[in-house]
Amino acid sequence: MDVIRTRPAVTELRLSSFASHRGAAFPLGPVTLFAGASGSGKSTALRAYRALARLGSGATLAEVFPDPVACVPERAAADAEGRRGFRIGCTVDGPAGPVRLDLAVQAEPALRIVGERLTGARGRTLLSTALVDPGRSTVQAAWHTGGSVPVTKAPLPDDRLGTALLPLRVAGSTEGQREVLAAAEQAVVALRSVFSCDPQPARMRTPVVVGEGGRLRSSCENLAEVLRRTRTECVTRHAALIAAVNAGCAGQVDELRTEELADGRVRALIGRGGFGVSPVERLGEGELRFLALALVLLTGPGVLAVDQSTELLPARQALTVLADGFDRCLDARQADELLRLAVGSCGRGHIRLVAAVGDAGPARELAGVSVVDLVA
């Protein structure tokens, strides 16, 4: 509970009307696995979470939803003006208490936000928006002010999340305004603290050009560059990574290092005890995915390509890893080892995991794991 109070985190995902989901509310814990047959909506749930995260980071609707009609439930009928859309939302727990964010998006005939509501811990509506004039690219927003003027009204863009814009619009001079700011900032901090990860073994096998920063990308294609950083910057975490890879790969692994090639590129190497070293590109797809996901779970925002809020100290933020196909290409032993690693890392409170899996059987017996079963 102390972790929740100090580190904002999304604790519920709501898909009121989104693709194959209707009236769905999914509680999210430190480790949450979406399980179900193909077509049950596992990837769709993660896609909705990722969309909220990007909106919280300031992206536009067009950037987040390049094919918005695909988000509309198939059997959703248009109204008299030909309008169809979808609804998503979440609850963020943190120092300001549970804060609800709900969003209604019109997909046809034009992509725009037609309604947004931010609700505080005491059930008070802190922000609401509505489409008043379809001919304008704005929505009418009203946020709680308190004092002599109970509500402030102003237009906001209809293609961006209003909650993310509030810190730039609210002065914070009254108690009501401070309540709005606290809730909005809590929601934005939690949504921005997301790293979507889907390791691509084919791209990880190629030596990489060292870029600036050395932060791991979502596809993990620059794994070698990041390993070069972790080996020198954090000896303890690097040792934990070697131990994890030793448990998840065939044969002994006692070293992870890099070498620079003649053309300036870098490739990763694994030490095989008394059997020398070999390049990681010789690993199987499951082993490469295991290595990449283990690295993600053992590091943090400084190593991962994620744009966290700068207004709050890193120690007061919890990073959420979104991993579709978390157990893809893994055998049962690897999946079990990776899940145990996730439980250990997430149990410390600085990282959370929301993942889709093909088989959640072993996870059901593991303390600290929440399984959401979906039915196609």
- Counting DSSP H or I runs of 4 or more residues, the number of helices is 10
Alpha-carbon distance between the termini? 34 Å
Q: Taking strands numbered 1, 2, ... along the chain, how are they ordered across the largest sheet?
A: 2-1-4-5-6-7-8-9
Question: Order of helices and strands, N to C?
Answer: HEEEHHEEEEEEHHEHHHEEEHEHEE
The overall strand count is 16
Give the % helix.
25-40%
Could you tell me the strand content as a percent range?
25-35%
How would a crystallographer describe the biggest sheet? 8 strands, antiparallel
pLDDT averaged over residues? 91
Name the overall outline: elongated
Rounded radius of gyration (Å): 22 Å
Name the poorly predicted regions.
none
Structural class determined from secondary elements: alpha+beta
What does this 3D model show about the protein?
The protein is of the alpha+beta class. Helix content is 29%, strand content 28%. The longest helix is centred in the middle third of the chain and has 18 residues, at 175-192.
Keywords:
five-stranded parallel beta sheet; 16 strands; 10 helices; alpha+beta
Describe the secondary structure blueprint for this structure.
Blueprint lengths: L1 H5 L2 E10 L2 E7 L3 E5 L6 H15 L4 H4 L19 E10 L5 E10 L3 E8 L5 E6 L7 E7 L6 E7 L4 H8 L5 H18 L1 E3 L4 H4 L18 H11 L1 H14 L6 E6 L5 E6 L5 E3 L5 H14 L20 E5 L8 H15 L4 E7 L12 E4 L3
Parallel strand pairs: 3-15, 3-16, 10-14, 14-15
Antiparallel strand pairs: 1-2, 1-4, 4-5, 5-6, 6-7, 7-8, 8-9, 11-12, 12-13
Helix pairs in contact: 2-5, 4-5, 7-8, 8-9, 9-10
